[in-house]
Design brief:
The protein is of the alpha/beta class. It has 16 helices and 16 strands. The protein has two domains: 4-271, Type I PLP-dependent aspartate aminotransferase-like (Major domain) (Aspartate Aminotransferase, domain 2, 3-Layer(aba) Sandwich); 274-345 and 384-427, Aspartate Aminotransferase, domain 1. Strands 3-11-10-7-6-4-5 form a seven-stranded mixed beta sheet, sandwiched between helices. Strand 8 (173-174) and strand 9 (177-178) form a beta hairpin. Helix 12 crosses helix 16 (401-427). It binds pyridoxal-5'-phosphate. Pyridoxal-5'-phosphate is lined by residues 67-69, 93-94, 96, 139, 165, 167-168, 189, 191, 202. Pyridoxal-5'-phosphate binds at residues 67-69, 93-94, 96, 139, 165, 167-168, 189, 191, 202.
Length: 428
C-alpha cells in the first residue's frame, strides 16, 4: 500500500490546477484505489461523506445514493407512500419526481408555480390535498428557496411528510436555515452540473431514525443488518458466510453510492463553500448586467434567503416589449460571444410520458377511480405554462472567469443592441 505522501507525489504531474476537481479529489481517489477494502482510518468513503454531511447540516442521519433520483424514490418509500397514495409536487421541475411517485404506484399531483419565485405556489397546495395525500416534495429550483414556512404550516395541519429536493440548492438558506434541514427528509444530487459533483451520486438527510433505516435498507437491497447509522452492522464472517443466514427482510434496490464517487463527492463537499461563493459572484455579475433592464426579470427569492445559484434564471419579456423573440435573443447572444443559456425544462404535467400515460394499468390501475387524477394537460397549471416559455437559465458554474466575463459582455451587448434597434425603429 502506498503512503499518503507517495500518492500526493504521484498525482502532482497529472494535477490540473484549473480543473473541475482541483481540491483533494485526486488524492482521495488514489487513496481509494490504493486500499484493498475501501476503508481508510477504518471508515469507508461513503461513511466519511455521510458524516461530513451530518456535521455540516446538523442532521442525525445521511444516506449516500447513486443519484438524486434514487434518493427521491427512497424518501417516498420511507414515507410509506404506496399504491394509490398521492404525492404533491411542483410541475416546474425535472420529471424524476413524478417517476419516483409512479414507481411507488402512487399518483403525482402537480401544483402550479409562483409567478415570481417559479417554485411551487403554497397558496395552491391545500386545494390539492385529499384523504390519499401522503407527502409533499418541495423543490428549490435554480437554488432559490421555496416558501418553506407556508409549506410546513400546511404539512403540519394535514400531517403530511415533506421531502425537500435540494438537487439545485446545496448550501442555499431559507431565512437563515440551510435548505434540506426544514422538511422531514431532504435529497441532494451530485450529477455533473450540480454545485458539487462526483459524476453521478446523491445523498438523503433526515433526523428521523425510522425514515433513515428505511432509506438505508431501500438503497441497500433490504439487507436486514442495515441500520439508520452508517456501516453495515457487525456480523462475524461465520454468521454472514453461513448458508442458513437469511439476509433480506425488506424490499430494496441497489442505490448505493459507489465508493469512488463518495471519495470524489467528499473532496468536493469539503470546498463547497468556495464553489458556491464563486457561483454567487457570477450571479451578481448577471444581476448587475440586468439592473437597468426591465424586460428581463430575475427569479425572485423569498426575503432573508441565500441562493447558492445552481443557475441564474430570468423571465424574458423581450417579445412583448420589442417584438424580439426568445429564440432571436438566444441566437444574437450566441453570435455576440455568449456561452449559450438553457430554456426551462418542460413542465412535468406536459411531458409526453404524462400525457400518454404508459404507466396506467402497469403501475397505477386503469380504472375510474384513477381516471380523473390523471387529467393533466394544457391549462391545468396556467402560471407555470405562461412563464416556462419565457425562462432563460444562465450558467453559474464557470471555473474560468474569462468565459463568464465574455458571456456577461455578450449579454450587455445583446440588450443594448435590441434597445437601440427598437429606439431607432420608434424614431422613424
Ligand atoms: C431538481 C432536481 N431534482 C432531481 C434531480 C435528479 O438528480 P440526478 O440527476 O442526480 O438523478 C435533478 C437533476 O437534474 C434536479 O435538478
Amino acid at each position: 500500500m502506498k503512503s499518503k505522501k507517495t500518492i500526493k507525489n504521484l498525482i502532482k504531474p497529472i494535477f490540473n490546477p484549473n480543473g473541475k476537481f482541483n481540491g483533494k479529489e485526486l488524492e482521495y481517489v488514489m487513496e481509494y484505489l490504493n486500499t484493498e477494502n475501501s476503508k481508510t482510518n477504518n471508515k469507508t468513503w461513503s461513511e466519511k461523506l455521510e458524516k461530513a454531511f451530518c456535521k455540516k447540516f446538523n442532521m442525525k442521519y445521511a444516506i449516500g445514493h447513486n443519484s438524486g433520483t434514487s434518493t427521491l424514490h427512497s424518501c417516498l418509500y420511507a414515507a410509506d407512500v404506496g399504491a394509490g397514495d398521492e404525492v404533491i409536487m411542483p410541475t416546474y421541475t425535472v420529471i424524476c419526481l413524478a417517476f419516483a411517485a409512479l414507481h411507488q404506484n402512487a399518483v403525482p399531483v402537480f401544483v402550479d408555480s409562483d409567478l415570481d419565485n417559479f417554485n411551487m405556489d403554497p397558496d395552491l397546495i391545500e386545494e390539492k390535498i385529499t384523504k390519499k395525500t401522503k407527502a409533499i416534495i418541495v423543490v428549490h429550483m435554480h437554488g432559490v428557496p421555496a416558501k418553506m414556512n407556508e409549506i410546513m404550516k400546511i404539512a403540519k395541519k394535514y400531517k403530511l411528510i415533506v421531502i425537500e429536493d435540494c438537487a439545485q440548492s446545496l448550501l442555499s438558506k431559507y431565512k437563515g436555515r440551510l435548505t434540506g434541514t426544514i422538511g422531514h427528509m431532504s435529497s441532494f444530487s451530485f450529477e455533473t452540473k450540480k454545485q458539487i459533483t462526483s459524476g453521478q451520486g446523491g445523498i438523503v438527510l433526515t433526523s428521523n431514525k425510522i425514515f433513515a433505516e428505511r432509506i438505508r435498507k431501500h438503497a441497500g437491497l433490504g439487507y436486514k443488518i442495515l441500520k439508520a447509522e452508517a456501516g453495515v452492522g457487525s456480523l462475524l464472517p461465520r454468521q454472514f458466510q453461513n448458508p442458513d443466514f437469511k439476509r433480506h427482510d425488506s424490499l430494496g434496490y441497489n442505490y448505493r453510492i459507489p465508493e469512488i464517487c463518495a471519495a470524489l463527492a467528499l473532496a468536493q463537499f469539503e470546498r463547497s463553500k468556495k464553489l458556491t461563493d464563486r457561483r454567487n459572484i457570477i450571479a451578481s455579475m448577471y444581476l448587475d448586467a440586468l439592473r437597468a433592464c426591465d424586460w428581463i426579470v430575475p427569479q425572485k427569492s423569498p426575503t432573508n434567503c441565500y441562493n447558492s445559484h445552481w443557475s441564474f434564471a430570468v423571465k424574458y419579456y423581450g417579445k412583448e416589449k420589442y417584438n424580439f423573440s426568445w429564440r432571436k435573443f438566444y441566437d444574437l447572444f450566441n453570435k455576440n460571444g455568449g456561452d449559450s443559456f438553457f430554456g426551462a425544462v418542460s413542465l412535468q404535467h406536459l411531458e409526453d410520458v404524462m400525457l400518454k400515460k404508459p404507466f396506467l394499468g402497469k403501475y397505477i390501475p386503469k380504472n375510474n377511480i384513477y381516471k380523473n387524477k390523471f387529467n393533466y394537460g394544457i391549462g391545468t397549471c396556467p402560471v407555470a405554462e405562461s412563464i416556462q416559455p419565457l425562462i432563460m437559465v444562465f450558467k453559474c458554474g464557470y471555473r474560468d472567469m474569462r468565459i463568464a466575463r465574455k458571456s456577461l459582455n455578450a449579454l450587455k451587448k445583446t440588450i443594448n443592441q435590441i434597445e437601440k434597434q427598437c429606439k431607432k425603429n420608434n424614431d422613424h
